[in-house]
Records
---
Amino acid sequence: MHKFFLSLLLATAFPVMANEAQPVAADPVLEARVQKIAEELRCLVCQNQTIADSHAELAVDLKNQTREMLQRGMSDKEVTDYMVQRYGDFVLYRPPVKGSTWLLWFGPFLVLIGALAALFLKLRRRRDQIVQELTSEEHEAAARLLDDKH
Amino acid sequence: MRRFLLPLGIFIVLVIFLGIGLTLNPRELPSPFIDKPAPAFNIPQLHDGNKTFAPTDMKGKVWLLNVWASWCVSCREEHPVLLDLAQQDIVPIIGLDYKDERENGLGWLQQHGDPYTLSAYDRDGRVGIDYGVYGVPETFIIDKTGVIRMKHTGPITPQALREKILPLVKELQGA
């Protein structure tokens, strides 16, 4: 009997949880846009999370702000521009390419090119060493050593 | 011996860069508001909900906008500094009670003292978002024409007040 009640409780509990998981806004298209923008924005309280991932209050507020602005018919770019105006480029997970971020974007490639150049020089120097011709004295010395072995 | 020089050099450069990185504060972001007009708002005051406050009310004065809340722990840290500054009557401090319950905010001021000329009440954090607030307390220094000249993130220390905020306030008041 107990088991029956328990299973009945469990059976009724799950639909309740499923209800709670429903998105806040009924409009799935709008919600997808909010989500997409939220994934591009950094949560400023917990700096290594996007506002889509974060449950910090500020992140929730910014998501609501995004949703409202989209409802008012603003474009995705207008929303991100609004955030950048207030929080700076830092709010973007993908920083824009400009003077001050040039090193950030291209620094790794510079390091790669530098490393490749160093490797190339090193290999060429090694090849030069191998190709170096022996002088006649060295030939004789080598021959003498080889003769000793016999 | 020579072949160790290059790795050692690279290592030293790396240590220098990491060392510089350690001294930086990742919480302190450059504010995009510096030298821009303070965003406009018009919201109820904390003490009297029938009265409102707008930044344009302060035209012609240099003033501080200090974002605080009763739930904010580091606000307690800076509060004595603000009370001291208010007593010297150098510059008006306007409070912005951010995402707070009205009675909690009022209770907090009663308990710890009220350094503010007045406090505006930002119940849902709208004004906070407009000012790019991400960590309370934050303080904006606004000049006579309503332009934000400096932003201080985190609690104001006596040192920051003495060395950065007050010199700027005096300079702006003279202008």
Note: The radius of gyration of chain A is 33 Å.
---
Amino acid sequence: MSGLLYLIPIALFLGGLGLAAFLWALKTRQFEDLDGAANRILFDDDDDLPQPRDEKRKS
Amino acid sequence: MDGHATAVAGLADVSDLTPYIRSEPDGERSLNMLVDGMHCAGCQNRIEKRLRQMPGVVVGRVNLTARRLALRWKPEDVRAEAIRDAVEALGFRLVPYDPEKLSSANEETRRALLRAMAVAGFAAANIMLLSVAVWAGKVQDMDPTTRSLMHWLSALIAIPAVAYAGRPFFRSALTALKARALNMDVPISLAVLLAMGVSLVETIQEAPDVYFDSATALLFFLLIGRFLEQTARGRARSAVEHLLALNATAVMVLCDDGVRRTLAPEAIGPGMRVFVPVGGRVPVDGCVVEGTSDIDTSLITGESVPRMASPGSRIYAGAMNLSGALTVEVAAAGQDTLLAEIARLLEAAEQRRARYVEIAARIVRIYAPAVHILSAATFLYWFLLGGAGWQTALLYAVAVLIVTCPCALALAVPVVQVVAANRLFRKGVLVKSGSALERLATVDAIVFDKTGTVTVGQPDLVRDGAWTDSDLRAAAGLAASSLHPLARALAAAVPDVHPADGVEEVPGHGLLLKTPEGEVRLGRGGWAGGAPSGSAALELWFARPGQPAIRFEMTDRLRPDAAETIRALIARGFSVELLSGDRAAAVAPVATALGIERWRADCTPADKIARLEALTVEGRRPCMVGDGLNDAPALAAAMASISPSTAADISQTAADVVFQGDDLAPVVETIRVARMANRLVRQNFALAFGYNSITIPIAMAGLVTPLIAAVAMSTSSLVVIGNALRLGWQTRR
């Protein structure tokens, strides 16, 4: 039974961590644009590359 | 109806961005815009990439879900108009908006509910862990000290969580009580607070049974329902606001000093003079003081042919200016404007509709007092007759409150509504209010407006053999340079047409081309050499020197699937009618083509309401489908109402459901889904009452332990949610 004395606080702490993470995400508006954010990871950040690709895309 | 409006959007958009630009403290400027024409991540990427390349743009971030663009830039490096033009060059249309006006209160409520839900979920899960240990301990001989420890820990988690997450319910219950009414939040608050209070006393006395788990889980489930409800409403509402905002543009005002200034539409007052360019929508009700033009009033009156406006004519907001620039003096407030008249009818109609009581509310009226009486009876019975102590009696009463708690009312109805609304949303149908689907499900008569509803609202050339292809080609050359809907229809018939040079527009008459042989005219009958016909005829005459005048006849084309949709509605047993503000000569052929037997022409907004009321008196429950400003009061007066997304702003606001696209089929689909949703709601009530009829007697007998309460509550919630989700699964097949 003495295991409870540290297991329960650990469980509560981990749960609380999850809650805090969720509230933080809500506060910083992470859920504002679910569709856009999902796709943004796929975009190439080719700002630092030369830009021949843009020319191609236009044609 | 807005076919030509969107086609000339580039021309119509005279808006200046100044009223919407804000100065940030660090000297930068910021602006929020709605993006029209953005569909996928590729569009998002193109816009953001273009903005990254522009010097001076600090932030250019697209929100794909809300179709919005947040901009921040350095005013010394770049101008707002330049940024907008760069993005519009990519093929998107940008319209500025004021973020504070677009549903921010709604968004705040949604976030508060989500926070409360997270807290309740955390508390419920952790307390449930502790409770499982206690329940297992009953079999495995947990010693009372450990059990007490578990109870204290549960109390420690539950008290702050309930105090925080229960606020939406407590607040609403208090409001209801202050108004001497009962809503469902009263028994909910009572159940949660009593359960908490009793459990705390039990914990202090080291008794075996506490209800912290039930109280928090109850809150968690109920908050899910609340959140879903809020989300569904907010989403449809913001989609409609988005559509409306796209239509609104800044107004160009002529000031006394002769300067043109652009103001936001709200800043316009009576007596001001407003400039309406060719291709622009008239932004105000008023009187023409300068200029002559043709104006398209189909959105306002349902007339399909433009009429002439000259100094002294009254014109109404929403009309489209077609052929000449106009200066309009804004009508004084409180004057008998069309808009004021329509607003008055609309208000009266909305009050009448407010008498409709949602099924959930009707049940609550019986259910809430019943719950209170049952649990009070349980307490009194055990305390006075059963010989139990007051604490035990109270514990049993709390058990009754918990097991009767209205999961079907608070959870199942919103879930059904959300699933149904989402299913329709995917098909371009926006459901604006929670009770809309419920009212639509009971509808048995459908009343259509003509122009812009069963028809596209755009004229289309009739190939009747009165002209040859070369005639058409020549006429289309003239027509190509005009915004007049009849001319556009003619030009559209020859897609590769070359606009003729030197075409003049004679407002109110037609188009004129001076050639060495003489004048070539395309326009009204009397002016272009044809038979002088009524100004409302859908025809253009084409006169060339030395040749007889030729008549081009047009019709207002039906929506492609209109006849099919109406057949389907009649086959399903709906009585279908057509009420139009247009002339009988224009309405009759449409009614015949669609197979509608009952139709009326020349209806004023009041006539339409009168007809709907007559239907109601006959015992029918009519659904109005319309788009014009003249339909708005009828939309609000009907049992339920549907508008196409091309409708006038006020009609979209008045309608319960707004559908997008060229087809009329969404009307059938919406009613079908509404009926399915209604069936599911009723099933859910049946399930919930069936469950209650078993658990209430057990709870009143004092046999419900916290374990049974928790299991019964969760399973009943899951069953009703599962039943509601069936509506979504059926689409995916």
Note: The helical segments of chain A are 3-27, 34-40, 52-58.
